[in-house]
C-alpha cells in the first residue's frame, strides 16, 4: 500500500521539488500552501505522469496556528492515514538589525518558527494517535551561525534545529521517527537574489537528496551531506573577523 506524505510550502522551491520526487517513488501526496492555484497546477502536472497516485491540495497559511491544528487531522482522516509530515513552509528576507525592517523580520518568525512548530505539534499529536509516523523539519545550514544581513532567518532556523533536538529526545524509542534536515544553497526563489551561493545545486538534485535522507529516516543531515557537514562545523568556530561584513 502506498504511503502518504504531507508537505507544507509545496507551491515552489524544494517543497515543489520534494513533491515531484516523492511522486516518482510512488507516494500519495497532500500538498499544502498559501497559493492554492500553484499547488493545484502542481497536482495536475504530477497526475499526468502518475495517474494512479492520490493527491489532495489544501490552502493553508501555517501562521494560522488554529487552522493548522484542524487541517492536519482532517487531512489524515480524508487520506486514511498520513505517514510523513514535512514541515517545509518558510520565507527568507529581512535585513540588518536596526535597519527599520522589523515588520519583515517578524513575518519570518511567524512562518519559520511558529508555523513550523504548529505543523510539527499537530503531526506529533496525529502520529501518537496513529501509533506511527515520521516528522521532518526543514532547518538550514543558516542554523549553524548567525550571519550579517540574515540574523532573523538564521535565528529562525536555529530555533527549529533546537526544537527538533528536543523532539527527538521526547520521542526516543517511540514508533515515531524524527528527521531534521539542513539544506545548503539549493537554487530556489528564497536565495536566488543573494550575492554569494557557495556549493549551489539545482532543485531536482537537492530534492532527490532530501527525499533519500527522509526515506533512510536519518536523525539529522546537511543537504548535500558533503561539503556542508564539514563547512557547518567550521562556521561555528570561525573567528568573527572572517565573517563580519559578509552577506
Automatic annotation (TrEMBL):
Q: Name one Pfam family in it.
A: adh_short
Output the superkingdom of the source species. Answer: Bacteria
The family database entries (InterPro entries) matched by this protein are listed as: KR_dom, NAD(P)-bd_dom_sf, Sc_DH/Rdtase_CS, SDR_fam
Q: Tell me which PROSITE patterns the record gives.
A: ADH_SHORT
The record places domain Ketoreductase at 3-189
Q: Does the keyword Transport apply?
A: no
Q: Which UniProt keywords apply?
A: Oxidoreductase
Family annotation (SMART domains): PKS_KR (SM00822)
The record ties this protein, via PANTHER family, to: DEHYDROGENASE/REDUCTASE SDR FAMILY MEMBER 7B, DEHYDROGENASE_REDUCTASE SDR FAMILY MEMBER 7B
NCBIfam families attached here? PRK08251.1
Q: Which family does it belong to?
A: Belongs to the short-chain dehydrogenases/reductases (SDR) family.
Q: What is this protein called?
A: SDR family oxidoreductase
Species this chain originates from:
Alkalimarinus alittae
Amino acid at each position: 500500500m502506498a504511503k502518504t506524505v504531507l508537505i507544507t510550502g509545496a507551491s515552489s522551491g524544494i517543497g515543489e521539488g520534494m513533491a515531484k520526487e516523492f511522486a516518482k517513488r510512488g507516494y500519495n501526496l497532500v500538498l499544502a500552501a498559501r497559493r492554492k492555484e500553484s499547488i493545484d497546477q502542481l497536482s495536475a502536472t504530477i497526475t499526468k505522469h502518475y495517474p494512479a497516485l492520490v493527491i489532495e491540495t489544501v490552502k493553508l497559511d501555517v501562521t494560522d496556528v488554529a487552522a493548522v491544528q484542524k487541517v492536519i487531522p482532517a487531512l489524515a482522516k480524508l487520506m486514511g492515514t498520513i505517514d510523513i509530515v514535512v514541515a517545509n513552509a518558510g520565507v527568507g528576507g529581512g535585513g540588518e538589525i536596526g535597519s527599520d525592517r522589523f515588520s519583515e523580520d517578524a513575518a519570518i518568525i511567524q512562518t519559520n518558527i511558529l508555523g513550523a512548530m504548529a505543523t510539527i505539534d499537530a503531526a506529533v499529536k496525529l502520529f501518537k494517535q496513529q501509533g506511527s509516523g515520521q516528522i521532518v523539519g526543514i532547518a538550514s545550514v543558516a542554523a549553524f551561525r548567525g550571519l550579517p544581513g540574515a540574523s532573523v532567518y538564521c535565528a529562525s532556523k536555529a530555533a527549529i534545529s533546537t526544537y527538533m533536538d528536543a523532539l527527538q529526545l521526547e520521542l526516543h524509542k517511540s514508533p515515531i521517527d524524527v528527521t531534521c534536515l539542513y539544506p545548503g544553497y539549493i537554487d530556489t526563489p528564497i536565495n536566488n537574489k543573494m550575492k554569494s551561493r557557495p556549493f549551489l545545486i539545482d532543485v531536482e538534485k537537492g530534492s532527490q537528496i532530501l527525499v533519500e535522507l527522509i526515506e533512510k529516516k536519518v536523525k539529522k543531515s546537511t543537504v548535500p551531506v558533503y561539503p556542508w557537514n564539514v563547512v557547518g562545523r567550521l562556521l561555528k568556530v570561525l573567528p568573527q573577523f572572517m565573517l563580519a561584513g559578509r552577506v
